[in-house]
Amino acid sequence: MDYFAAIRAFLSAAELGSFSKAAARIEVKTSTVSRYITELERDLGIALFNRSTRGLVLTEGGRVFREQAVGVVKSLEEAREVTSSLNSSPRGLLRVTMPCTFGRRHVIRHLPDFMDRYPKIDVDVVMTDEVLNIIDSGIDLAIRIGVLPDSQLMARQLAAHRRVVCASPAYVAQYGAPASPAELAAHAALRFSRAADDRWLLVNRARTSVHAKQEAVSVTLRGRLRLDDTEAVLDLAVAGRGIALLPTWAIGDALRDGKLVQLLPEWEAQPGSAAAAVWAVYPPKKTVSSKVRAFIDFYTAVFDREGCFDTTLGKRAAAKKD
């Protein structure tokens, strides 16, 4: 038995809950995965899975074996990556996860250029708004947006993440533009349902020096619409259904095309005491693999060149309606 191949098959089956899905991931036959698991169970003298019509569930022994096997495979992968990093040509399978809206707008459309530049890298993309455990899921790199929680993971900033107040010209023509954050309370806000509460915390960038403490203004919102998707909020803002607080990376095209105008241009969202950004997050390793480093360097350059992460590309402050 190829023990390492069997362990990889086991870990994939444990994560995906299916022999067939595990086989598709590691590119072998389903019967091969089944044989690997049977041989592992015979060698260990214990059942690793409970099998049912609903899929696979780890036994207690399977959970213990998985916990130890993850560390073994991680050590092997690190050994391979340290060695392969000496090679000037990045290669291998790169598993990347990213938020859906950001990924579609700013990552996927540049992926052909990345793969042309690095023909020996295969890419497996997981599009999800869930925050995956990248170590347990076998993810090489995650793109995450906002303020990062404390963790043992490594992170590198790819681009800025700023959220600004905006609305459509039609909305401004009908209801006017707020002259201060306090006036937002009189407007219909497109509220984000994943937020902790119905408030926006805004800071005045023009009045805040680099070293001064930012004093946030809290705005209580009203409005009939609450949504849990950035793209949906953007669509409704363009349709004139209310004022939105959206990231600059999402509204760049709409600002350029005149579908949205920035309101309160000196103000933006206060994310908290830590820095908010678009991050590349990856497991802690002694040496970052060449394929991960290639992806980070490529997209850092792309995002810097795109210029859609700052409102200076299309800043059009709306005048208040008479």
Automatic annotation (TrEMBL):
Q: Which InterPro entries match?
A: LysR-type_TF_proteobact-type, LysR_HTH_N, LysR_subst-bd, WH-like_DNA-bd_sf, WH_DNA-bd_sf
Q: Which domain of life is it from?
A: Bacteria
Q: What molecular function does GO assign, one term?
A: DNA-binding transcription factor activity
Q: Name one Pfam family in it.
A: LysR_substrate
What are the protein's UniProt keywords? Answer: DNA-binding, Transcription, Transcription regulation
Query: Carries keyword rRNA-binding?
Result: no
HTH lysR-type domain location is: 1-59
GO biological process terms, alphabetically, are:
DNA-templated transcription
Instruction: Note the PANTHER family from the entry.
Output: HTH-TYPE TRANSCRIPTIONAL ACTIVATOR TTDR-RELATED (PTHR30537:SF5), HTH-TYPE TRANSCRIPTIONAL REGULATOR (PTHR30537)
- Tell me its family: Belongs to the LysR transcriptional regulatory family.
UniProt-recorded name of the protein: LysR family transcriptional regulator
Q: Which organism is it from?
A: Trinickia violacea
